[in-house]
């Protein structure tokens, strides 16, 4: 399943905060950009119909929870991105990302540790 950018924004909030109401999500989105409550509600209703979210009646409203797992969703999006943008080459993606962004000392150390781990495993 491929969430739209607006759906992904809502999923990020739910992954980071757990269960939330439409109002809580809309308030968070509005702290970054102007979005109407009915727009947020409609997107979340569509996400519920797609099976991206579950909802539970609480009082007079609903509380929503992400059904899609964060890691699975991000892995799927990344795989499609690498395939379509970099012809399936993860190395090309990493080379461009490191060439365009100055990594901190901590980030470089994390990358070295990951490379060492991948070497021990014999690559993926």
Spell out the key features of this protein.
mainly alpha, 124 residues
Give the secondary structure arrangement, pairings included.
Blueprint: H1 5-17, H2 22-30, H3 37-50, E1 53-58, E2 61-66, H4 70-86, H5 90-100, H6 105-121
Antiparallel strand pairs: 1-2
Helix pairs in contact: 2-3
Characterise the protein shown here.
- With 124 residues, the chain is mostly helical.
- It contains six helices and two strands; from the N terminus they run αααββααα.
- Helix 2 (22-30) packs across helix 3.
- The longest helix is centred in the middle third of the chain and has 17 residues, at 70-86.
- The radius of gyration is 18 Å and the shape is elongated.
- The two termini are 24 Å apart.
Give the number of helices: 6
Give the ordered list of helices and strands.
HHHEEHHH
Task: Give the proportion of residues in helices.
Answer: 55-70%
Number of strands: 2
Strand content: 5-15%
Task: Give the strand order of the largest sheet, numbering strands 1, 2, ... along the chain.
Answer: 1-2
- Rg over CA atoms: 18 Å
Largest sheet: 2 strands, antiparallel
Uncertain segments are: none
Arithmetic mean pLDDT: 92
Helical/strand content category: mainly alpha
């Amino acid at each position: 399943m491929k969430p739209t950018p607006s759906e992904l924004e809502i999923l990020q909030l739910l992954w980071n905060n757990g269960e939330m109401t439409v109002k809580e999500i809309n308030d968070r989105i509005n702290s970054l950009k102007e979005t109407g409550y009915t727009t947020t509600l409609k997107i979340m209703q569509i996400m519920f119909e797609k099976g991206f979210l579950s909802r539970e009646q609480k009082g007079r409203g609903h509380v929503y929870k992400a059904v899609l797992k964060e890691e699975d969703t991000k892995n799927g999006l990344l795989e499609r991105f690498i395939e379509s943008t970099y012809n399936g080459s993860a190395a090309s993606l990493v080379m461009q990302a490191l060439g365009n962004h100055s990594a901190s000392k901590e980030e470089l150390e994390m990358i070295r540790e990951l490379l060492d781990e991948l070497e021990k495993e014999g690559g993926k």
